[in-house]
Amino acid sequence: MSVQPEAIVIGASAGAVEALSVVLTALPASFRLPVIVVVHVPPDRRSVMAELFQAKCVLPVQEAEDKQPIVGGTIYFAPPDYHLLIEVDRCLSLSSDEPVLFSRPSIDVLFESAADAYGPTMIAIVLTGANHDGAAGLRAVVDAGGRGLVQDPETAFAAAMPEAAIQMCPSARVMSLEAIAQYLKEV
């Protein structure tokens, strides 16, 4: 019997808006899990990700704030130039530690903290991107007993990130964006 998921983390980079538009807009108003998202965005200007997706999604969407309690049925985006972490007390935390793989926010940082906080009740998803961020984090989630999903590199705008995730975590399920959206609706 599989463990009931309690949270979802998603990482994306180049091609993120298009990929997330398929996955996040498919989630119904009744969706009960929190979704925490890191997208590589330029550090020197305001991100419009939360506003953009609030206009597209039926779920509430917001930019994450430090020490914010995680609420189910809400989509959180990492703010520019901060790592987004999940604390063991299920609150969000922002950090200005050094970039990881030239990225802050880092997908690996989010995923590794999520693995510590949620263990086997975590679903981690690596989408399109042009670097290797997310691969080590996905491995951490799967090693903690969580589920790993990866966008099929054949369908990704940039295949490097999903390919690295598959290489580091061969047990992850490789799926199209539509299949990922359907999978989440059924958890």
From TrEMBL:
UniProt xrefs under PROSITE patterns: CHEB
InterPro entries hit by this protein: CheB_C, Sig_transdc_resp-reg_Me-estase
Database matches in Gene3D superfamilies: Methylesterase CheB, C-terminal domain (3.40.50.180)
Annotated Gene Ontology cellular component terms: cytoplasm
One example GO MF annotation: phosphorelay response regulator activity
PANTHER family assigned: PROTEIN-GLUTAMATE METHYLESTERASE/PROTEIN-GLUTAMINE GLUTAMINASE, PROTEIN-GLUTAMATE METHYLESTERASE_PROTEIN-GLUTAMINE GLUTAMINASE
Protein name (database record): protein-glutamate methylesterase
UniProt keyword terms in alphabetical order: Chemotaxis, Hydrolase
Annotated TM spans: none
Reactions accelerated catalytically: [protein]-L-glutamate 5-O-methyl ester + H2O = L-glutamyl-[protein] + methanol + H(+)
GO biological process: chemotaxis
Superkingdom of the organism of origin: Bacteria
Catalytic residues as annotated in Swiss-Prot or TrEMBL: 13, 40, 133
Source organism per UniProt: Phyllobacterium pellucidum
Entry keyword Iron: no
CheB-type methylesterase domain mapped to chain residues: 1-187
Entry EC no(s): 3.1.1.61
